[in-house]
Design brief:
Length: about 270
């Protein structure tokens, strides 16, 4: 353990499953005080139980982050238990995939509601609180807080089954970079990660949709998908979490407004 996060408070949205849970595990292993937020109380309880078996302790808050007031309440609950948040890892939201023919205006809106707004609401609540701690622009390099947004390569590389979700990712990428430039002088660093295909529950829908669209088995879709990745395999949630840990650490103290692809070489990086 490096002790870089000893007694640091880390808030992770979407922290009960997938990349969010892997991040919660890694930060807790590094000595951080971790709070996770999710919509499902059952999933949160399962995450707490799973981490406890590994000797790791986290606290939780159940909230629907599509509601801005709920995002603020969840932040209040975590800070009441752990103290002021130092790091926000936004991993909330699971945009469903749809064929272009099935996309309706309602589905476009639902996709943004699933991915863009839950992240933005928590980000706004945290930034508002951090900005109050740094009322004057800082020229001394003090770090007030760090944000890592888990976004997705679909925001740069469009696919027909992920147009709505990719558009939400693109919007979150733009917000990440723009807010990073604004808040950097206040000692707040904001960066993002674009995971490629990662072995979480979210990949199941993508494989199912691809197999149905092409009339092949799920196993064939899985194998063909992996074969297209230069590293020859899908990513693991903990590999994304390792990059989140780096971006939240002092080792990345001069990294601001970056969107880092973590995709095995499978998508454009420019």
């Amino acid at each position: 353990m490096s002790q870089e996060f000893e007694n640091k408070v880390v808030l992770i949205t979407g922290g009960s499953q997938g990349i969010g849970l892997a991040s919660a595990r890694l930060f807790a292993q590094e000595g951080a005080k971790v709070g996770i937020v999710g919509r499902s109380r059952d999933h949160l309880d399962q995450a707490v139980h799973s981490l406890a078996k590994e000797g790791l302790h986290v606290v939780t808050a159940a909230a629907d982050l599509l509601n801005a007031d709920e995002s603020t309440r969840a932040l209040d609950e975590i800070e009441a238990q752990l103290g002021p948040v130092d790091v926000l890892v936004n991993s909330a939201g699971a945009a469903k995939r749809h064929t272009p023919e099935s996309l309706t205006p309602q589905l476009w809106r639902q996709t943004f509601d699933a991915k863009f707004y839950p992240n933005l609401h928590t980000l706004h609540a945290v930034l508002e609180r951090w900005a109050s701690r740094a009322p004057a622009r800082s020229d001394k390099g003090e770090q007030i807080g760090v944000v890592v947004n888990i976004i997705g390569t679909g925001g740069k590389q469009p696919t027909s089954s992920h147009l709505a979700g990719g558009s939400a990712n693109a919007a979150l990428m733009l917000a990440t970079v723009g807010l990073a430039a604004h808040y950097a002088p206040y000692g707040i660093r904001i960066n993002g990660i674009n995971p490629g295909f990662t072995l979480t529950g979210r990949i199941e829908q993508a494989l199912t949709l691809e197999s149905e669209r092409r009339g092949i088995t799920r196993e064939q879709a899985f194998a063909e998908g992996q074969a297209q990745i230069p590293l020859g395999r899908y990513g693991k949630p903990e590999e994304i979490a390792q990059v989140a840990l780096f971006l939240a650490s002092p080792r990345s103290s001069y990294v601001v407004g970056a969107i880092i692809p973590v995709n095995g070489g499978s998508a454009p990086v420019i």
